[in-house]
Amino acid sequence: MNTERYCYQFKDKVPVRDIEETLMLALLAVESMHGRTRVRMDGRFRLDKKERVCVIHAGTRIGGDLAKIFTGFVTREFGDDAVDIVHEPAHSCTGQGNCRAAAAGAAV
């Protein structure tokens, strides 16, 4: 199983509700591309509202597309400096506020 994933750590200035709504919009876009059933089977993500962290498992085509769309939406809506995005192998991004930070779009 491919456990590639992306960790999004949002700054305090971004309302948690807006993060959640943007994630739902990205999911809707992926459902439009692949169908609801396929997204339900292969889409894996977690939003920790308290820690302001979203983790998207990108080891499937569904997850990869969700990560691309979500990244595009959040950087456009909130700005590149509002979220740190880290591409991580398995187990190094726990969503407990200890993700290594990198600027959106920066090579990691």
Summarize the structure.
This protein is α+β, with helices and mostly antiparallel strands and 108 residues long. It is built from three helices and four strands. It has a four-stranded antiparallel beta sheet.
Index terms:
alpha+beta; disordered C terminus
Structure characterization notes:
The structure is a single chain. It contains three helices and four strands, in the order E-H-H-E-E-H-E. It has 108 residues and is α+β, with helices and mostly antiparallel strands. Strands 2-3-1-4 form a four-stranded antiparallel beta sheet. Helix 1 crosses helix 2 (36-42) and helix 1 (16-34) packs across helix 3. The radius of gyration is 13 Å and the shape is globular. Mean pLDDT is 86; it is low at 100-108.
